[in-house]
Design a protein that fits this description.
Two copies of one chain form a homodimer. Chain A contains seven helices and nine strands. By secondary structure, the first copy, chain A, is of the alpha/beta class. Chain A has one domain: P-loop containing nucleotide triphosphate hydrolases (Rossmann fold, 3-Layer(aba) Sandwich), CATH 3.40.50.300. In chain A, a hairpin with a 2-residue loop joins strand 5 and strand 6. In chain A, helix 1 packs across helix 7 and helix 5 runs antiparallel to helix 6.
């Protein structure tokens, strides 16, 4: 019953995933999954903290050996989730948080049907666009591209188990809702057959 | 999204259902479903508070008119859940709590597939028996009968959506777990298709 849960979180750029996940990780029962990549480390990035930096050969070997829960190629580099990290943390009873796009999320669900998929949505498309503009750092073409990607990703919401709406500055509420989802799932009967023992389990 | 949820709670006698439900009802989003019965009111019992007291004819008419979500006959009297009360409270956005046995719970689920069924179990059968004895008011034959009924009811756990274990004096934790289940279910995608609107919904 106390085994950890694999929590996959997706949502469009600008929806506030990062802030919600940061809040969630204040709870020590949660741990963030570190991705592997074949791209070079940027200044300040540390191996095993920001990413596991691996060679292309090594990454491809991991794919063939089914050591990746999901992966994607993006502008010539591979990015993916190493299975071993996730499994070892779940075994320790931690809830493992993956922040990935819809394609990755569906790959994970097919490999780990017990994973819980949560989509973080904006209250409206208008609100999402305002937030993207509010960052002030992106030019019009970037915003347009992000809105287009967002619309595509939103088309996958109903493949997810849950959808929470991240209202402006309500990220604490959103994080609490995700914690409630995890707590509820741990009591879900479909997750495992419940057996009440004859005698108390003295742990 | 804000419509209330129908919450069906079962569990063996002695498991502490009453205390957990009392705690849950401190939250004003929850309301307890008042049953209908054909038995006579006992001293102090009020119509519409403890039960809806109805005649046998009226009860049978309600059954025929499909106005009962579930019902059972017990030592010559009918007991059941009037659909109208439940529907009106759900419409007001309240979460409606039904405390019924496993047979009734499965009747409700077949009529209202959106109902969420929660079983409150003891940490062990030994612990349940200790609690039944601890009441000190029941003789041996009553305890034996209750343990037999409990074993039978526990056979239905895996027909429920969730099972929470009510440890000794942990009823606040159990109530919090049930609240988490309700909150999670309200964000469940299978419960309804999620559509992110173009513009903010000004309410």
């Amino acid at each position: 019953m106390n085994k950890g849960l694999l929590l996959v979180i997706s949502g469009p750029a600008g929806v506030g995933k990062g802030t919600v996940i940061k809040k969630l990780l204040e709870n020590k029962d949660y741990v963030f999954s570190v991705s592997a990549t074949t791209r070079s480390p940027r200044t300040g990035e540390e191996d095993g903290i920001n990413y596991y930096f691996v060679t292309k050969n090594e990454f491809q070997r991991k794919i063939r050996a089914n050591e990746m829960l999901e992966y994607a190629e993006y502008v010539g580099n591979f990015y993916g989730t190493p299975r071993s990290f996730v499994m070892s943390k779940l075994g320790e009873g931690k809830n493992v948080v993956l922040e990935i796009d819809t394609a990755g999320a569906l790959q994970v669900k097919s490999q780990m049907p017990d994973a819980v998929l949560v989509f973080i949505g904006p209250p409206s498309m208008e609100n999402l666009e305002e937030r993207l503009r509010g960052r002030g750092t992106e030019d019009e073409s970037v915003i347009e591209r992000r809105m287009k990607t967002a619309k595509k990703e939103l088309g996958f919401i109903n493949k997810y188990d849950y959808c929470v709406i991240n209202d402006d500055s309500a990220w604490e509420k959103t994080a609490r809702e995700i914690e409630a989802i995890v707590l509820a799932e741990k009591h879900s009967v479909k997750r495992k057959n419940v057996i009440i023992p004859e005698k108390n389990n003295r742990q």
